[in-house]
Amino acid sequence: MRESTDRRPGAPRRAAVAVVVAALGIGAGAGSLVVAEHRADVRADRVQAAARASARAAAAVDSRLADTAVQREGAARSSRTAVLRTRQLALGALRDAQERARDALAASRGEVAEDDEAVRGRLADLLEHAEDDETRAGAVEALRALAAQTLDVSEDVDAAHRDWLALQATPEPLPDDEPDDGVTAEPDPAPTTDRCTTTYDGPAFFTSAPTEGGDGSNGRLPESMLTPTSWGADSRGTRYWLRTDATAALERLNRAFRAEFGHDLDLDLTYRDYATQVAMREALGSIAAEPGTSRHGTGVALDVPELPCEYGWDTPQRQWLLAQGPSYGWVQPSWALEDGGNPEYWHYEFVG
Question: In this entry, which stretches build a coiled coil (predicted)?
Fold first, then answer.
């Protein structure tokens, strides 16, 4: 029998070569694996570096967007305050025009020629529809014009009475009225005032001390019905007086407010005597309450300072007062809210 070829004389040498080749093949594969792993590590480092750079860029963009949002929010808040102030002035002018137009109608009743009753009819019709939002914009000027026209339709009206009515029917112009003298007014310079300063631009008024000898009616409260707060006084040194139960509730609210914000609640006006109510009505018109009807006159209302950045519509302080105040009996009435009939972010009332 022939022997196996594995036992032929040249077989051991070829096997050794095969082992060496196999060994070399294994070694080459391992080197390739190391190189591949190294390249993968480099790529991973580069990816991580790119990710960190992207994160930094995104953070920078977020920061710029946040700064822009804050700036826009501040501008929007200032614009909203200006619009609300203009709205208050316009509503006040409308109410004044209505009151004076009613006076003109009453004074001219039976004093005008029959043919001129149409003028009084148009005036009465405007008064009836003046509260309609769609006609409100033109109502003020139309009321002024028709009221003035009503005064001139008859020579039988006493001249002195007519002059008096003319004065009553001509309210002060709104700030945006311009004189019709044919001269183009120079534009107002751009405002440079701090948007965080007070939004009140009228004459100064102060809180009231108890009314000496008061009978307990609105604006005439004696000291026996009032108690001052334990903190604060106005610029004249008058303490902040409220009805005794309202003060007790406010003291509890103030302790919670101080724990939240680190300082006492700022006060501006509290009790308002009758004489001050009269003065404010004369100075501010229908924006101020009719004397003898103000909640301040009963010692259950307070005003915080008119500072938009501290107590304004979107401030943390106001949001806290709206959320927590009712627990202590203090609320902001619906008419004083931002969408109310006479927006006043500074006004709060005690309801028990």
Answer: none
pLDDT > 90 in the chain, percent: 41
Contacts of 55 (CB under 8 A, 6+ apart): none
Whole-structure pTM value: 0.49
| Overall CATH class of domain 223-350 | alpha beta
- Cα separation, 280 vs 297, in Å, equals 12
Region 314-333: mean pLDDT is 97
Using DSSP, state whether 302 is helix, strand or coil: strand
Say how far apart CA 351 and CA 328 lie, in whole Å.
9
Confidence tier at 164 by pLDDT (50, 70, 90): very low
Distance CA 272, CA 343 (A): 20
CA of residue 154 relative to chain centroid, distance? 49
Distance CA 135, CA 119 (A): 18
Instruction: Tell me the three state secondary structure of residue 297.
Output: helix
Residue 24 contacts by C-beta under 8 Å, 6 or more apart in sequence?
A: none
Residue 245 CA to residue 223 CA, distance in Å, equals: 13
Domain boundaries, the chain: 12-68, 82-168, 223-350
CA-to-CA distance for 191 and 105, rounded, in angstroms? 42
